[in-house]
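Forum > Structural Biology > Help requests

Title: Can anyone predict the 3D structure of BTB domain-containing protein?

Hi all, first post here. I have the sequence for BTB domain-containing protein but no way to get a structure on my laptop. I'd be grateful if someone could post the structure tokens.
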Amino acid sequence: MRVSSSHLRLASPYFKRMFRSGWPEGDALRTKGRVEIRLQNSEDPDALLIILNIIHGHTRKVPRTVDLTMLTKIAVLVDIYECYEVVEMFSNMWIDSLIGDMPQSISMKLTQWIWVAWVFNKPDQFKVATRIAGRQNRDLIETCGLPIPQIVAARIDEQRQTSINRIGSALHDLLDYFNSDDVHCSFECDSILLGALTKEMKSKKLSSEDLRGPCLGMSYEDVVDKAKNIRLPRWNGVCNGYSSYGYHNCSIETHVDPILASLEDYMCGLDLKDFPSHYGRDA
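Reply #1:
Sure, ran it for you. Structure tokens for BTB domain-containing protein below:
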């Protein structure tokens, strides 16, 4: 395919550098008047054709909608050639048509959304996709061969690890609370809650030892589900200080739920603005 080097220079800092003197491609362009550039294995020819039509102003040849797979391939090339601005109008159109297809669970499509949102500077989609990944992944995210920056994958996993560690520490503190010399409800109630919590934390692997370190193989949502389902025996006790008896209404949930609620704001996904290098590329 024949293309205009002047159009490529204007649209892409990558090609602007390539066509300078001192580069093989730049020297060939000056001596021969043309240069041949071969596609790399990661560069999809159909995606490249779309980008080249945009760069050369052949907008009628540019599709108004693309599927997520094609958008992902386009994003790979846009990132390589650094032509973010020239495709922005079309990338906005493509992404708007796909927003309703954002997956709600870990999948290759979710990883593709993280990549697309990163390349095309979409904070809302980036936050939603990384939130799902942070809550459901059990290890570092699977990048599916996409050049997602290592720092993004690390931050997602950091949220997963930190939140799980905090749950372990908070449940351990709750054990200490019921095991203290202070009486919080009654000796009987505190003892029953302490025993039930100890037994359930052991059987569900929710101890501070279990929830320490990288916690490989555990997702945040796995641990939250276990914590929400800590069982407590029902027993009769004196109601309101009188002699009548009924089911005692103290529960583990009143202590566990605030612990889990406090983590929700933390597990809300990543902000693009927290990655200065990402924004620096558009300067």
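The first helix runs from residue 5 to 11. Residues 152-264 form one domain.
Shout if anything looks off.
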